């Protein structure tokens, strides 16, 4: 919950690569040139955050430069309405008008809201101002059309729209809107650790160095991981102070007069928000390490990757990174960002962030009702043969039935997230991955990559429909 455990993907590129590999499998035939316009429907089934949407939108200009015009409909489904509200807020930051803030300020703001239990005062001010426009957008279709016509809420039930309004209202700084995240985090940490609580630093180091780094978490540094496990603050810089509660992490909100009842903090406390943008980079300079020490933290890699994506979203031009802009904190012992006491009502928005969002031509983002989880898994006729790409989060695989395959097109890409980037035992990781593979095999899917030939575990598994040679050639040649 709150963030994914696999890296952000350009899902349009993944679909094109799958289509090319299918075409090239026809003996004696060469794949046709890419069509000028490619329209696809993408289902994000419990992805937890908008990482795939952001990266896919950011890379659209590159596909257009190659002569392909993507038209993409995203369909977002999640069982928790507060997670959907957070999803919308994070999209709002990524697509914030460039006139409202500079690029690096936007990146640090996104990192704050995405991965920190406590926010900087400036980030909290932004969230308050942005919340006011989000509230209007949910209640007024004309306002939504003016600000961001790429969002579509038609599939949400009225009670779910009320849930979004409830979440946005809770984020505003009022006396009864209390979210004591530090207390919730500490109490839950003590409960999860049990008898190991007094030796938690050693447990944190074991989880990172003996578990996560042995999987795909080599870029996470001990200092940033321990600080996140202790406080819930993942992305820190020594010049910043963290004092305001990140209310986007609140779920189960129920209004009680002027106050709210909620479930405290119930999200991940073992892996962290590093996987989406902080483990991989096209800039290999940031992945250098020596004697077991990284030159750059996962925080610094996250910053660099988001700088690229947000630059591409706003300018539709390639990003060139100046390495001097990345602070080399991997092996430096930092005085971690301070956490301060605060008064809930002592702050208000300096601005109302109500300028139109960045518009990405050819993109539509549809938010589905939680009831659609069951319609999709049962292969309901209203979704039959609808999706070209489906991404299934690891914690939503349990909802799938064989009938789910009915909502996928004949030529489709199915991406299943594994539990690799958790601290679960190796046996549990292997068992879960075997379940994913069996599900694909039973439903006549074949892997895009020959996983059996690779002696490693994977954070995602990619599959395409298995078809005989004649059918493949008929569909692709």
UniProtKB/TrEMBL annotation:
The family classification in the record reads: Belongs to the DNAAF3 family.
Q: Where is the Dynein assembly factor 3 C-terminal domain?
A: 151-447
Q: Where does the record say this protein resides?
A: Dynein axonemal particle
Which stretches make up the DUF4470 domain? 2-119
Q: What keywords tag this UniProt record?
A: Cilium biogenesis/degradation, Cytoplasm
Naming one, the record's GO cellular component terms include:
dynein axonemal particle
Q: What species is this protein from? A: Glossina pallidipes
* InterPro entries tied to this protein: DNAAF3 (IPR039304), DNAAF3_C (IPR028235), DUF4470 (IPR027974)
The molecule here is called: Dynein assembly factor 3, axonemal homolog
Could you tell me the Gene Ontology terms of the biological process aspect for this record? axonemal dynein complex assembly; motile cilium assembly
Q: Does the keyword Lyase apply?
A: no
Offer one Pfam family short name for this entry. Answer: DUF4471
Chief location: other
